[in-house]
Amino acid sequence: MRANWLAADAALATSSSLAEAAPQPASVIMDEQSFQAFFRQSAAALRAYVISVIGNAATADDIVQDAFLRLLRSPPATSDAQQLRAFLFRIASNLMTDYWRHHRLERGAHDGRAREPAVAAPNIPLRVDMARTFKRLRPQQRQLLWLAYVEGAEHREIAEALGLRPSSVRVLLYRARRKMAQLIDPGNRGDGKR
After folding, report:
1. Domains in the chain and their CATH numbers?
2. pTM
């Protein structure tokens, strides 16, 4: 199913109707072939990131598609794949923030909706417990942990993706790890002491 999603989105993003509907940037930095290659490299990781933070596959698909569309409409002045990837994750992070703001206004200050499972995984109790624990973190903490430990991003890359200073990432990531440790083991203060 994921391969179908990737193929459908790549076809949609590079179709001539999209090119006609979207305003063209002053200088196009990607041709169709390079965009498709970039899409194949980035889409699955971006989708996994958004699903892990949002917790809803359908909403994540919308955000990922919108992120690629915005990248095509307003590309940064670079052709470096790492910088494009950071820019794409930044767009997705901003779209998730917009999503949370919109839904907070609709539902009031507390977002109590039930979320669908992020990814169908084997019925392994540890994975289920970790997924539930991960959802108990604040959205920014989930973003930080996902980018650092699943994507393997450096502090500088995380800072670019989330719009933070690199020095802030170090502190916020420490706090997110500490909070995760406290959620896993309530007797743990997160600083190695009990």
Report:
1. 1-120 (no CATH), 121-194 (1.10.10.10)
2. 0.56
